[in-house]
Amino acid sequence: MTITNRTLFFILLTILIIGGGTLSLSKSCTGIIPSSQSAIKISLTTFPGHVYAFIAQEKKLFTKYGVNVELILFPNQSSASFAYESNQAESLLVPFTDAIMFTSKGIPSTVVYSINYSETADVIIGRPEFNSLSELNGKTISFEGFNTFSHLFVITMLERTGIHEGGFKAVNLESSQVLAALKSGDIDAGHTYEPYSSRAIAEGFKVLAKAGDIPNIITDVLVFQAGVVNQRSQEVQGVVNALVEARTWIDTHPTEAFTIMAQAASTSATEMEAGFKTLHALNLTENIEAFQPGGTLFTLGQTAIDFYNKKGQLRQKPPLDKIIDGQFVSAVRGNY
Known about the structure:
There is one protein chain. The protein is an alpha/beta fold. Helix 7 links the parallel strand 6 and strand 7 (about 170). The N and C termini lie far apart (about 55 Å). Mean pLDDT is about 90; it is low at about 1-35. About 45% of the residues lie in helices and about 20% in strands. The protein folds into two domains: about 40-115 and about 215-335, D-Maltodextrin-Binding Protein, domain 2, CATH 3.40.190; about 120-215, 3-Layer(aba) Sandwich (D-Maltodextrin-Binding Protein, domain 2). Helix 6 packs across helix 15 and helix 12 crosses helix 13. It has 17 helices and eleven strands.
């Protein structure tokens, strides 16, 4: 008996339906995404150093590198981090010091890309009558979340002037609410970041300290659940490739880039561009260097571990070489 092409087609189709399978396409340099591949959800904020991920989305760079990505935008870091911690997202853009805490809390996480470090994007801003941090002894100061990067930033800055915890009234306050709290007199000073910091400055409030006073103290990174890195490494590489290319878009197509970023963050392109200039977005060479033993990520990581350990917040000291994985930025060099 001869099996015709039509008969063979229906046999194969029946097997596929009974088996519950789906036709899939292998990934290649053409950017074809397997039909069975679920989206990698990345949680991020409206911070200028984060929303350039929307360039990768708008210009279809994720697709170009064979990865299906869903960007989930939040107004502040605490909300974005909660989405990651509660397993609503597999990946997160977050200050590196917070990424260390995830592993300590039982959420094994891997840093695969260093996005930027804050220069004047993160500030401690106070009422106009204050001229320096040393004047804040006994005053009310806010930061975004206890035992977070924001807490570490404020404490580190104050301790340099001789003000230690207990020497001021601490308030947990989202950065987006700092300006209103300053206006109402509920706080004397607080940590905030772009775009909220520029808005507070425009209202006449005064910058008392900035992240650039201690270089790299607030460094943002791309972090993945460790299991995702192990099981979907090619897709993780695709995300890193896309973000590296998106970063270059800001240099080569600034007008379009800031327009895309502003639309994502519901602000103006002018404000977005001004905010982006308050941070240093790492290029690929700087990224590779940051991941080297003794690089800025390892140095900052040890500072964070010492801080959290001193406060009794670490259930265990996470090994930095297990959290920091430079293979993905190193691989970009050969692909882009």
